[in-house]
Design brief:
- This protein is mainly β and 68 residues long.
- The protein has one helix and four strands.
- A four-stranded antiparallel beta sheet has the order 1-2-3-4.
- It starts with 11 loop residues before the first strand and ends with a helix.
């Protein structure tokens, strides 16, 4: 977490990583709550302006996506 503290939103916890060099993060700040994929520029659509992708509103929603 400390290595990426300047790159991530406040109130963010890394909850997993992907083989493609990105992280699954849980944001709990009230306005951006949810699970996101933080890409370390491995996707062609990622750049300095956009490298965070929304996945689910809650951790339960994220978990449901994984196992359904």
């Amino acid at each position: 977490m400390n290595a990426y503290i300047d790159d991530l939103f406040e109130s963010t916890v890394i909850i997993g990583d992907s083989i493609q060099h990105g992280f699954f993060v849980l944001v709990c700040d009230g306005s951006n709550d949810g699970v996101y994929y933080y890409d370390s520029y491995s996707l062609s659509s990622s750049d300095d302006e956009n490298n965070v992708y929304f996945i689910a509103n809650t951790f339960d929603g994220f978990f449901t996506l994984l196992y359904n």
